[in-house]
UniProtKB/TrEMBL annotation:
One family name in Pfam for this protein: Rv0428c_C
Sorted UniProt keywords: Transferase
Gene3D superfamilies in the record: 3.40.630.30
Protein name, as recorded: GNAT family N-acetyltransferase
UniProt superkingdom: Bacteria
Sample GO molecular function, one term: acyltransferase activity, transferring groups other than amino-acyl groups
Amino acid sequence: MLGQQDVGHRIVVRRMVGERDGRPLFSDALGELVELSDTHLTLATAQGPLRVPRDEVHRAKRVPPTRRPTAAAVVELELAADEAWPAPTRDRLGSWLLRAADGWTGRANSALPVGDPDRPLPAAVDAVERWYAGHDLTPMVNTPLPLAAPVGAELDARGWSARPPVLVQTAPLPLAAGGSPPPPPGSAAVVELAAAPTREWLAVASGRKGGLPDAARHVLTAVDQVRFAHAYADGTLVGIGRGTVTGGGRWLGLSLIEVLPAARRQGLARRMIRALADWGAAAGATHAFLQVEQHNTGAVALYQRLGFTTHHTYRTRVAPR
């Protein structure tokens, strides 16, 4: 029987998918277990996310990983991602990072428990709760899995809730071809990169993220190597994206890839990603990473076509009010 200790590991699931001549029919699925609840489990498979009701599971077991990243590799990528999304208020608890940005985004307002907090785990969580209370914020912790599984178990015992799983995906540069279509006939869409976002770019980001306080502007711009993708159609901004190079120059981070509804399904997201990937490679980056919620199946499929695979997962844990 699967348990929370299996989240973040590769498993094979045999599920009942029907019946023929009075006999059950089964189908097997292999993938990374990213969610396990009382009613269902969710796998990140090569074909995309798969949600399986628990009453359909005939049997399931963990299988040895083929290329699971080492703990050091997870820490390296998590620190590169932190550098790419820098909270203006920061502190340390041993090696753990404490971050605050006036409540703007979970990543910039959560503790990152990598390394040693220099105290027993229960005392470390107590200190996290006090720090965020002192900044008038609900305590949150990002738990990279399976690296931070012990932290997750401690938070479970305290009744912390969990937000949906996030896939941390990576791809080597240059990116795969991805089946990117040519621009539609007569399309005047162009993609431009800039060292700073325009007012229109910020307006689109504000609509997606629910406002942009001063702390948000710091998160977006306080990176030495950063570019902002602007996609225009007939002179009107219809898409945005952001790229950073961090982690000692190795990692291109992609974030805030957004195309306005009227301009979707024209390949603009791929074009912005490719423009940022070309810039990152020219700056010396050898790999790209991004973070995408596991249930965002459209984005997961797009990134898969570009060569991205899941490096590890994380969940944002939220303290009880």
